[in-house]
């Protein structure tokens, strides 16, 4: 990798599959909203509130995945295979801990949070059903993001993008069957959308894990965690936590805005959901450029090529 020439063209070429992958990740939730629009506008409003909470959780998980990409890229640049494996194992342990902790917090406090957001009574139960079903798979989401971050560190953007395409296709098919009750399946509405989303994420996790094992870039062994490498964990958190502060701040502001929108009725909530879907696309490419740059700089820093 380090024999390659790194310039603006290389950054662009690496950013394109990352952009498509991030766009497709976002579309997993958005497809639920689009397909539910033909079922019920109340369901669109409910899923919009559920996804507002899930977005905050995913940002916390993404903060860790950014740190993973940066650290592994540096050790790849330094050609330190032992440290690469150590970071992979620590990353999975840290992401697993955060995912389980967030799942517990979600199940314990979703009602006070919904009340704080002033969610209308007519969509409260639907929003809760969607959030709890999707929230039960936070661990799957966290592990998927971890393996995706590791694979991106090895410049396997196209492969990860392809897996995102598969996830979206499965989600669309699952939505069609479970929301509307096609092919002898029951008509489940918003619950069907949540089940389809979880199934597609589970398949995505299986595929990224298989790709990781097939490539054999790093070892997954408990011996790397005994004794627990505290310094590696500290470094991972030191990089991860500040990196997501801006995105977390933005989404917290959107959550507060949603509280005011919720006071205006379900039609206005649904309108806000559709507008947010389009607005999100606008800044995804800048995120892709940033991630491609992080990976390349990681390689060069690890190799000591600071110039």
DSSP strand content: under 5%
Question: Rg to the nearest angstrom?
Answer: 20 Å
* Tally of separate helices: 10
Helix content: over 70%
Q: Segments where pLDDT lies below 50 for 5+ residues?
A: none
Mean pLDDT: 82
Described by strand count, sense and barrel closure, the largest sheet is:
none
Spatial shape: globular
Could you state the order of secondary-structure elements as H and E? HHHHHHHHHH
Number of domains: 1
| Total beta strand runs | 0
State the separation between the terminal residues, measured CA to CA: 17 Å
Kindly name the structural category: mainly alpha
Describe the structure.
With 307 residues, the protein is an all-alpha fold. 82% of the residues lie in helices and 0% in strands. α3 (81-116) runs antiparallel to α4 (121-135).
Overview features:
globular, 307 residues, mainly alpha
Ordered list of secondary-structure elements with their pairings:
Layout: H1 8-36, H2 41-77, H3 81-116, H4 121-135, H5 138-153, H6 157-180, H7 190-215, H8 230-243, H9 245-262, H10 266-302
């Amino acid at each position: 990798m380090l024999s390659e020439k790194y310039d603006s063209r290389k950054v662009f070429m690496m950013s394109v599959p990352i952009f498509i992958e991030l766009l497709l990740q976002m579309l997993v939730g958005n497809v639920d909203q689009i397909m539910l629009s033909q079922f019920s506008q109340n369901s669109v409003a409910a899923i919009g509130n559920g996804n507002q909470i899930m977005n905050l959780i995913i940002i916390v998980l993404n903060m860790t995945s950014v740190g993973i990409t940066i650290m592994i890229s540096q050790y790849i640049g330094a050609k330190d295979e032992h440290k690469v494996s150590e970071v992979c194992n620590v990353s999975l342990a840290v992401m697993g801990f955060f995912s389980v902790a967030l799942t517990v917090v979600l199940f314990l406090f979703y009602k006070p949070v919904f009340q704080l957001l002033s969610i209308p009574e007519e969509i409260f139960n639907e929003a809760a059903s969607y959030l709890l079903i999707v929230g039960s798979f936070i661990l799957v989401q966290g592990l998927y993001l971890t393996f995706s971050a590791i694979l991106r560190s090895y410049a396997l953007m196209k492969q990860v993008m392809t897996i995102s395409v598969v996830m979206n296709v499965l989600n669309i098919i699952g939505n069609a069957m479970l929301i509307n009750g096609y092919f002898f399946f029951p008509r489940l509405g918003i619950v069907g959308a949540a089940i389809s989303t979880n199934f597609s994420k589970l398949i995505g996790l299986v595929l990224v894990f298989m790709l990781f094992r097939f490539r054999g870039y790093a070892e997954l062994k408990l011996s790397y965690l005994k004794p627990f490498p505290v310094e590696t964990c500290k470094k991972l958190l030191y990089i991860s936590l500040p990196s997501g502060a801006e995105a977390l701040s933005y989404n917290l502001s959107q959550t507060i805005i949603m509280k005011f929108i919720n006071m205006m009725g379900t039609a206005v909530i649904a309108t806000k959901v559709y507008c947010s879907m389009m607005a999100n696309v606008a800044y995804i490419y800048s995120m892709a450029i940033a991630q491609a740059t992080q990976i390349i700089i990681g390689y060069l820093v690890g190799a000591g090529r600071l110039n």
